[in-house]
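Session log. Operator J.P. requested a structure for one protein chain; no other inputs attached. Running the standard single-chain path with token output.
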Amino acid sequence: MAKSKDEIIDVAKALEGLDVKRERLTNIIVRNSLKEFGHYTIEDRALPKVFDGLKPSQRRILWSMHLLKAHSTAVPIKGARIIGDAMGRFHPHGDQSLYGTLVNLAFFRSPLVDSASTNFGNNKGLTKDPAAAMRYTESRLTKFGDRLFDDIDIMPLVKNFTEEFDEPPILPARVPIVLANGCSGIALGIATNIPPHNLKDLIETCLYFIEHKDCTPLDLAKVLKGPDYGEGSGTCTSKKRDLYSLYVVGEGRVEYECSWHIEQSKKTSKLIITGKAPNFSTNKLITVTTSLASSKLLVAPVNDESSMTNPTRLTIEFTDYSIIRDRILPLLKTKESYRFNALDEDSKPHKYDLLGLIESFIEFRRVIEKKVLLQKKEDLEKKLGTDEAKVAAINNLDWVVKVLKTSKSVDEALKRLSTKLHLELWQAEVILNSQIRSLMRLNIETLSKHIEELNAAIAVIKKDLSQIDVVVARRLQEMLAYATPRAMPLGKAANQAATENLAAQTPSFKYLAIGEQGKVDRFEQVPLKSKAAWNYVDFLRATDPLLIVTDDNKAQKVEISYLDKASLGHGSKVVGVIPLSQVAATVVVSRDGKYVAFPSSIKKKKLQLFKTVSKWPIIRAVGLNKGDLLIVQWEGGDSVALGLDALRVSRANIAPRPLPDGPDDDTKVTNVFVLKKGHYLVDALGNELEGAGTLPKKRKVFVVGSANIVVLTTGARVLKTSADMLDFLEKVGKTVIDVIPLPLLRKQPHA
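Structure written below.
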């Protein structure tokens, strides 16, 4: 029977309501599951406890080793056995991740696990050398790791996941492991990253807190000094105020730098990296050095020469110091962000500052020390009661024997002994359980002496209980025996000498040549290249930021060490390379006689020079200072000499203006020169030109100085005197492409 329209609508609404309920139910299930998973990752996976500084996986491995008696003096145990025991009894998760945790415990700043000379890998080389399989490796606790279990007897235990075995929720750490070894972890919605520190500095910080209870986080930060990742971990280069801010706020960023030095040889030099800074990317170093080596800017890419005696030794062979300074050294500088998040006594995540971390640990140790002292006091009092009962029995031995003979039951004997000798029932039981020879009169002196010693020990414990902070401080000082000297220097002074030496070795000048395809070549000496196809050659200071201008109206600012990264554009021709730090302004001239002049303090890395591009390309871009003359040569031989004052210096990317004093017709510009003081003009035949009014129509004109680079079709050479220059032009002037006057140098470049 067909349903009516209204019935169909009701069914559709019911189904729609069912879908809504199903969607809401799904959201509730997902939300609750995600919430439960989030709590689990925070409380039982990723974050450490503030008291012992350990994650659950780390704590369970150490507990398993303790149960297996794998202490520092014991025979090492196979890694497979340790992992199997920890995984089967306490931590039912992946064996490989658990084995990785065991390996990491051996690489802590203050290691808790000893690899027993087996292959736990090396993470200080160019690439991380993984540990051998767990069936091959052996390990045991270190002496420092043994100290985690000194007070384990008074710690509460909880059942494991099968309710079969007991495990401690917290280990009684003797020092704040969370700061000694650091910790990092990512949970759902929260992460932690705490750097390791030198054990001696850390203990001194704890002692300072005990002595100065009203101290501030800044006071503690000054004692702690800063992070210490151990041997081969580089240098902490952050300023003190940045380090202090990290400890005061509990969050911040710290700067590091790899440790390095330069080894020189006759032909090449080597950059030796001896320490890898935290967060240092070796993959990026490999990529960059390989690219630079393929561009012939390095002799060879990075090479790993690490060994057992030198855990970190990475070498980069080079000849150009500026490449190391500008391209490699920045890669050796790193930054690491930190957040001091940890679980409090209720296993809830909490953000701490340095004061909070130290205060929580000291309060934890106060509780531990008090429990330990009370337990010792109870044990000593029991021994004292036992000795006192024996002394009382010896002094009344005949009566004790009579009681033993006449008592009808054990309870009656205990009652009569406790009443007559003024003892507690347990002391009376000691008399009943004692051997007869222990009650001989000869033992009375030994027992009396022992009682005095016990009373003295109990008095010491009572005194310690009244000043528990003294006990905490004393036991902290005992841990100084495991401290090692600071391995990570603080401040920039560590690499300062090497940096200054590198700056001294960096050449002040370079030769630059740009080919027809836009390829950039740099040379330490004159580029004597046969059959050269260069359209631009210049002589520059090595440290200059350069502005490379092409004839298609584009320019880009680049350091001389990054010239291989310059994208000159396909088909474009370089018409000028301006060392910005040496000139007051850059002048760009187009072929139709228009120009733009702008100051050298340009900030943009890439820009268009003309706002309205002329139909004629840019013919030349030059740098100009006060006292220099800009000489512009036109078709027909006419020329004009302009000083910087005659030009309008504004900014780049504006409509170009006509050159002053230029011809009124459509005459095109053929060449542009910069004539500096002490330079003069010559033609291609070596004839000196008197002025810039009229230049030869058909012969090339060059600017000549006291020493010059001559660019030929077959290469380049240096002529050290102006007389040599004129003689050379007279002989082969027609083959000369360009002449580059050199600045006056203390030591002239050699050919």
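Operator note: The two ends are 107 Å apart (CA to CA).
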